[in-house]
Automatic annotation (TrEMBL):
Protein name stated in the entry: Neurohypophysial hormones, N-terminal Domain containing protein
Keyword Disulfide bond (UniProt): yes
GO CC entries: extracellular space
InterPro entries the UniProt entry points to: Furin_repeat, Growth_fac_rcpt_cys_sf, R-spondin, Rspo_Fu-CRD_dom
Organism annotation: Trichomonas vaginalis (strain ATCC PRA-98 / G3)
Subcellular location: Secreted
Length: 228
């Protein structure tokens, strides 16, 4: 029967020397390993959890010749300190992955984007449902001051009358659009009968006067009236 003695192996014909050599790594594309774990990958490959990858897997980032898990919870694509995209079912907002977009934002694809200025709830940057306190809504946007041609009414801006630029209500204009004249809170293309123009306003002629140059000079009386 053969038997061994240290590094020698005795058989019926005498002694023969044996040699123990390190078994090569069985992990694909690994250069240096121990047991079933790779310690260093071959050139062009990256080490992650003891395995070698040609590109870093999802939810990891590359640093040198290694892949590291994203530091931000539920992040799918990242760099060392920034999340670029979240896992399915999550939205990216302020470098975090969340399940629901917060107030003042809306879901756009896999991200939460900000509503327009002053908007508290919206479906897009151009469609607001509710404005913040101190803002008024007009055309689904929020304003601190109502835009030209509108006036504040409650929490919204309403249209002034036709051709009016500034007003306090739909029937009380204080300034007309260019080429229009103001008279009794309304805007006219030309001053109506019984009035005269002065600047951008129309003023009433003297009583019973149909046409006048100013309040004291009448050029045509109303029907059934004559000059005296």
């Amino acid at each position: 029967m053969p038997w061994h003695d240290g590094m020698l192996f005795r058989n019926l014909k005498g002694y023969s020397r044996i040699q123990c050599i390190e078994e090569s790594c069985r992990i694909s594309n690994c250069d240096t390993c121990s047991l079933n774990t790779c310690d260093k990958c071959k050139s062009g490959y990256f080490l992650y959890t003891g395995q070698c990858y040609s590109t870093c897997p999802s939810a990891t980032y590359r640093s040198g010749s290694n892949c590291y898990q994203c530091r931000i919870s539920n992040c799918n694509s990242c760099s060392e300190s920034r999340c670029d995209s979240c896992r399915s079912g999550y939205f990216l907002y302020n470098n975090q992955c969340i399940t629901n977009c917060p107030r003042g934002t809306y879901a756009s694809g896999s991200k939460c984007l900000s509503c327009s200025t002053g908007c508290n709830s919206c479906s897009s940057s151009s469609y607001c449902f509710q404005c913040n306190s101190g803002y008024s809504m007009y055309d689904r946007k929020c304003y601190i001051n109502c835009p030209s041609g509108t006036f504040k009414s409650g929490s919204s801006c309403q249209h002034c009358g036709s051709n009016c630029q500034t007003c306090s209500s739909s029937t009380t204009c204080s300034r007309c659009n260019s080429n229009y004249k103001l008279f009794n809170g309304r805007c006219y293309g030309s001053c109506p009968s019984g009035t005269y123009q002065s600047g951008t306003n129309c003023y009433s002629c003297h009583s019973n006067c149909n046409l006048c140059k100013d309040s004291n000079i009448c050029t045509q009386c109303k029907m059934n009236y004559k000059f005296y």
